[in-house]
Amino acid sequence: MLVDSHCHLNYKGLIEEQGAVLDRARKSGVTAMLNISTRESEWRDIVATAERESDVWASIGIHPHEADAHPDIDLAKLVREAEHERVVGIGETGLDYYYDHSDRDRQKSSFRTHIHAARETGLPIIVHTRDAEEDTASIMKDEMEQGGYSGVIHCFTASEDFAYKALDLGLYISISGIVTFKNAKDLQATAAKLPLDRLLVETDAPFLAPVPHRGKTGEPAFVADTARFLAELRGEDYTEICEKTSQNFYNLFSKARV
Ligand SMILES: [Zn+2]
Ligand SMILES: [Zn+2]
Question: Which of 3, 24, 76, 100 lies in the 20 to 30 Å Cα band around 111?
């Protein structure tokens, strides 16, 4: 078993040859993929891919970059869309102060709306956070105090301190191909010690192709390279990393079936 917990199969670069991309993923041992939404206009296609491919699951949500473009996103809409049997998560949502493509207050309010949807549906939330650790942690904690929800910090690049704050709230941490980059020493140090029972792996394809594919279009097949790197980094077996991160995926995204 090997699960790519976060990819964008309907983005340019992958959509043109989605069949071949899925074939290559399966050949490199990937047994399931979570196809992530970033804006409302994608939802129908993302869900359609998951209806067509039994090893692809879907999420429903609005990326923080897109918060300004979706002023009318509300809880009822998210909950309704998430009822589809192939939708197993809410997101990606969160805060991105690195690009600041959307107003920060709008990002925050959209993030909270997504957490409310996660709580109401019982589905995990997929959190994107960049240069916004403090606000991300404080919103997650504040919302947790108002009622439980589950989730994952996707494409984790934040501090070790933030990782443990998220783990303390019961969230999972997903490691992307960034961990294989030469200049990612801090991330490697953190990834080496995080508890194995709370780790996921992902590609965030078509972005962030890991070593030795840097510069290419990322695709789910490459999650195997990230898992292999992680195994070496942590001194664990490749098979164990694959099995454990897959089990973690199904524990968290429990609406997805093996
Ligand atoms: Zn993201
Ligand atoms: Zn993404």
Answer: 3
- CA neighbor of 142 nearest in space, from 173, 112, 107: 112
Among 81, 167, 63, smallest CA distance to 117 is for 81
pLDDT score at 160: 96
pLDDT in tens, 212-232: 999 999 999 999 999 999 999
What is the radius of gyration, based on Cα positions, of the chain? 17
Measure 93 CA to ligand 1 centroid, in angstroms: 8
> Largest Cα–Cα distance in the chain?
48
Q: How remote is the CA of residue 7 from the centroid of ligand 1, in Å?
A: 9
Distance 146 CA to ligand 2 centre (A): 27
Q: What is the pTM of this model?
A: 0.97
In sequence order, what are the residues at sequence separation of 6 or more whose Cβ sits closer than 8 angstroms to the Cβ of residue 34?
Answer: 3, 4, 5, 6, 7, 56, 57, 58, 59, 88, 89, 202, 249, 253, 256
Model pLDDT for residues 136-149, shown as the tens digit of each residue: 999 999 999 999 99
